[in-house]
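Record 1 of the preview.
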Amino acid sequence: MPNPKRRHTRARRDRRRAHDFLDTMSSSSCPNCGAVKMPHRVCPSCGFYRGKQALRIQQSV
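->
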């Protein structure tokens, strides 16, 4: 098996790792209740999607 003859520099190592990071997920606010939610998804707090009730969410007491 081939083995490296010379050590790779820090710059070369870091250039390779330049794309090994996670992007932050985008978020939007619900127009009905104002909660933060993922875009194009039903709001987890009120259950509305595009102005219509999509899910019935039970209010915990």
